[in-house]
Amino acid sequence: MSDKVKFEVEFVIQSSQPLLYQYISTPSGLSEWFADNVNSRGELFTFIWDGSEEEAKLLKRKSDEFVRFAWAEAEDDAYFEMRIIVDEITSDVSLFITDFADEDEVDEAKMLWENQISSLKQVLGSS
């Protein structure tokens, strides 16, 4: 049984759905903001930060809507998902993140996502 707790954060992003999806689902897009470099072989993605590598398996994806990855090293059912939500009334685009962290590291994990999404917004030219 996992000690990790699920948490969710939402970020409003000024971008089109298809463009945002490219940045969350492709190695080249993810390399722009999520990691220093990203390679993929089929469903297996290798994320590289400062010379260290982490592998994640692409579990699910739906074009222009979401991607879900699971870290290869994880010993539980934890995953991280990036889902694009479009408000039907305002047409505002949000990126909804679902992730898991140890209970005492949730705030730190949320801050990490905030920093990552800030980089994504910069790349997209979104405020």
Automatic annotation (TrEMBL):
<feature type="domain" description="START-like">
    <location>
        <begin position="1"/>
        <end position="125"/>
    </location>
</feature>
<dbReference type="InterPro" id="IPR045736">
    <property type="entry name" value="START_2"/>
</dbReference>
<dbReference type="InterPro" id="IPR023393">
    <property type="entry name" value="START-like_dom_sf"/>
</dbReference>
<dbReference type="Pfam" id="PF19569">
    <property type="entry name" value="START_2"/>
</dbReference>
<protein>
    <submittedName>
        <fullName>START-like domain-containing protein</fullName>
    </submittedName>
</protein>
